[in-house]
Amino acid sequence: MAQSISVKNLKLNFGATSVLKDLNLDVQEGEFIVLLGPSGCGKSTLLNCLAGLLDITDGQIWIKGKNVTWSEPSDRGIGMVFQSYALYPQMSVRGNLSFGLKNARVPAAEIEKRVARAAEILQIGPLLDRKPAALSGGQRQRVAIGRALVRDVDVFLFDEPLSNLDAKLRSELRVEIKRLHNRLNNTMVYVTHDQIEALTLADRIAVMKGGVIQQLDAPQTIYNRPSNLFVAGFIGSPSMNFLPGKTVDGGKAFDFAGTRIALDGYDGGAVLDRPEAILGLRPEHLVITDTAEPGRSIPAVVEIDEPMGADSLVWLKSGSSNISVRVPVEKRPAHGTQVHLKVDIRHASIFDAKTEMRI
């Protein structure tokens, strides 16, 4: 598959501060890539570099086989949707959609055709004669997306477009953006700090921290096989449980607070004996039982129950560690109950405590 975007050894410094550090990223034709990470990780900065809104310190940016490292934003063949709607308040929706095309001296008939097409795709036809003040937040964001859509480009860049909306609108527009990508099959690069958006929208996710891509992979791979402790802790709500301990018996078992958990069936590399290791377990991969299973379970005490509608999140204490477990509502154990947590080691992750990398 052809590459739509290629970032090669990109560096960006603000004075003595290194913001993006020798970053490489290849985006395939028609791919939906999500840049995910906490505030300050460099995801929006990278997007602005792709758009030409920031001059890079070193490296190259290629879009559709063309070196655009020093090209103007208007010459890069991209459409961009910002976090703020940035609509012209004095213009109608039709005027906002057509303004950039008029400045580019696109023929009137072509402008009308593109505006009609964008309105049909985004279902904003009845809104074309309204001013932005008469629109809801979700409608304004549709118009902002439409303004990028009428440019008829191959690459779309989204900078946290849903962050100003309430939860219900975010969910609805997330579906619309997915439908838009399925219909157009354009290359899309999407920035967010919301992991639900990332997991539901992306073909691949680039998890970023400190100006470096920590892991680039399919959503399910990142969720099931995180490359390091940061990725494991950032992806998942609630977060993955981390149990400190060590691997023993030639890497055949994990010792957590004196309880040994057999590692046969672990889907990872050669474990070997490590004096400091961390066992990562997602809340849905633990089962609360009444009886101990040697090598398969750990003792715990129920502390807190958080009803979440379809299920409950139960917090337990084992040794000095707090552990969360998802359970059906009807199977919630009582506060203070002594129980055992059965471990599904097939879905576990083991990390070296020093390097924080997955074993």
From TrEMBL:
The family classification in the record reads: Belongs to the ABC transporter superfamily.
Write down the species: Neotabrizicola shimadae
Quote a single Gene Ontology cellular component term.
Answer: ATP-binding cassette (ABC) transporter complex, substrate-binding subunit-containing
Kindly provide the name given to this protein in its UniProt entry.
Answer: Sn-glycerol-3-phosphate ABC transporter ATP-binding protein UgpC
Q: What SMART domains does the record tag this protein with?
A: AAA
Question: Which keywords appear in this protein's UniProt record, sorted alphabetically?
Answer: ATP-binding, Nucleotide-binding, Transport
Give the PANTHER family listed for this entry: ABC TRANSPORTER ATP-BINDING PROTEIN, MALTODEXTRIN IMPORT ATP-BINDING PROTEIN MSMX
One Pfam family here: ABC_tran
Q: Where is the ABC transporter domain?
A: 5-235
One annotated GO molecular function:
ABC-type transporter activity
Q: Lineage from the top down?
A: Bacteria, Pseudomonadati, Pseudomonadota, Alphaproteobacteria, Rhodobacterales
